[in-house]
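Design job #97: recover the sequence.
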């Protein structure tokens, strides 16, 4: 039986960051990952010489002093990455028919452009900007000011008000409401589902400076793994944790599907909490708590379309596009927004070939008939359903790039079931347990729980997305390392 100081379960971004932060303190850290590659949702795949990202489109907050920059510098991976900022004046463009609004790359500039586009909504917009600044200023891992007293992030009130409720008295213009609402997509939610406070954090994190990474999300994973190895982290791939042995309210060891056993003083579950709780016996944990978490609603899954192209489409530039179409939103299953990423326009075709990545979020229910079936063996009906959805997503994109059909060499599609298969996130949930208004506060799994040496982190905890899971990992590890020195080092 292997013995370590810390066992981290899952080698997604959160597990990799946890491993580094704990190995830095001299602890012997083992990371157990079920898949054959590290990265979780940040993994990539190649098709005929073309590289595709599973869960990476853009990463914000990389300007000096902003959270992602500070985290990456602290971890000593910043210098291993080449960041490619999206265009200054149009990083993410929202499109609905003939209407367009370009989110620029800076917070200040966004405020100016929004006020210029909707002068009649000045009072409401100014209030929104002030409130976003107030919310992010109260969240220590966003604000990163030294010597300022902060409440604990978990004490922020994520519960009470949805984005739609917050905006109702402030903004009347339907197009402005739509443009602001699509940013809830960064939480996998619609405006009436997204907690206003989480929305404010996710919105603000997408400015100053929003980037592609040369080589995509895989380059970030490779840099974190390299840093982990320098610190002696032991990465075990194809090591799925399937059992917990506990005594006296502590985990003694975990068992892996290949028959291995790993004992440690500390265990960090950096994966979907449901997959972990499902393999802890009822007598070792409060069955009421376990049942509550297992019944919680998962976030939506992703329907993705990956296009291998002959060359870059002339009509699409470097900006990511968010396409909104009311008719598609009314169909079953509804497609509310399609996100179009054109990585090669930013990174160049030599890195991974000409390609487009299209995605939308979908509920899991329409895929339920094929739950539990094996990847590549789900049958003709599933393939037809997937192809119909992929066609709807593609058709919306072709309206903006009519030359696209001529350029397509190959098209691949994935569904929430594909993601579930590769990452073990139940229901292929893009952001783990849904972050909607009804599932906030003490209703959510917290980093610390009844088993004294088992901690949760990852995208189901405080915040999802790349910046969110870095925040969760730093917050969990600060608690484990003790004191506030980690925060002070990141803030400086
Ligand atoms: C389609 C899509 C697009 C996205 N786009 C963006 C974006 O542009 N910007 C952004 O900021 N965020 C984006 N995200 C979100 C971001 O990718 C995730 O929030 C983040 O990567 C989650 O990291 P994680 O480590 O918490 O979880 P995961 O990435 O889910 O990692 C969990 C890991 O644990 C492993 N695991 C699970 N169970 C076990 C077990 N029992 N034993 C061992 N290992 C186990 C899994 O295999 C996996 O490797 C996107 C996500 C998706 C799906």
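Job complete. Output follows.
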């Amino acid at each position: 039986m292997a013995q370590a100081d810390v066992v981290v379960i899952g080698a997604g971004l959160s597990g990799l960051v946890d491993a580094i932060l704990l190995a830095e303190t001299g602890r012997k850290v083992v990371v157990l990952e079920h898949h054959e590659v590290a990265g979780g949702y940040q993994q990539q795949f190649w098709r005929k010489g073309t590289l595709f990202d599973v869960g990476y489109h853009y990463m914000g907050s990389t300007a000096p002093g902003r959270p992602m920059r500070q985290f990456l510098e602290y971890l000593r991976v910043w210098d291993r990455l080449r960041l490619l900022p999206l265009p200054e004046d149009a990083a993410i463009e929202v499109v609905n028919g003939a209407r367009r609004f370009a989110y620029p790359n800076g917070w200040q500039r966004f405020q100016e452009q929004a006020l210029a586009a909707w002068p009649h909504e000045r009072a409401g917009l100014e209030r929104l900007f002030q409130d976003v600044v107030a919310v992010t200023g109260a969240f220590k891992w966003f604000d990163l000011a030294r010597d300022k007293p902060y409440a604990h992030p978990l004490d922020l009130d994520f519960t009470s008000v949805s984005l739609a409720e917050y905006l109702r008295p402030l903004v009347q213009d339907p197009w402005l409401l739509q443009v602001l609402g699509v940013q809830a997509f960064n939480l996998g939610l619609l405006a009436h589902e997204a907690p206003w406070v989480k929305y404010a954090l996710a919105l603000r994190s997408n400015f100053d400076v929003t980037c592609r990474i040369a080589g995509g999300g895989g380059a970030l994973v490779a840099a974190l793994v390299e840093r982990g190895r320098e610190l002696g982290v032991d990465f075990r791939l194809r090591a799925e944790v399937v059992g917990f042995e506990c005594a006296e309210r502590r985990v003694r060891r975990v068992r892996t599907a290949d028959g291995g056993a790993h004992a440690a003083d500390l265990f960090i579950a950096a994966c979907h909490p449901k997959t972990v709780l499902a393999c802890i016996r009822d007598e070792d944990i409060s069955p009421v708590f376990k049942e509550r978490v297992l019944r919680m609603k998962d976030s939506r899954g992703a329907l993705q379309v990956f296009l291998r192209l002959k060359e870059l489409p002339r009509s699409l530039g470097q900006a990511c596009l968010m396409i909104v179409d009311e008719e598609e939103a009314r169909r079953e299953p509804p497609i509310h927004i399609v996100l179009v990423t054109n990585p090669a326009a930013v990174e160049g075709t030599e890195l991974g070939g000409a390609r487009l990545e299209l995605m939308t979020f979908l509920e899991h229910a329409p895929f339920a008939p094929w739950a539990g079936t094996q990847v590549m063996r789900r049958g003709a009906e599933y393939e037809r359903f997937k192809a119909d959805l992929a066609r709807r997503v593609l058709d919306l994109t072709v309206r903006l790039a009519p030359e696209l059909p001529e350029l397509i060499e190959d098209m691949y599609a994935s569904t929430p079931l594909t993601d579930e298969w590769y990452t073990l996130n139940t229901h292929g949930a893009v952001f783990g347990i849904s972050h909607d208004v009804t599932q906030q506060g003490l209703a959510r799994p917290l980093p610390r729980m009844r088993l004294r040496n088992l901690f949760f982190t990852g995208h189901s905890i405080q915040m999802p997305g790349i910046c969110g899971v870095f925040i969760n990992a730093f917050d969990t590890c600060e608690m484990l390392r003790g004191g506030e020195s980690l925060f002070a080092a990141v803030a400086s």
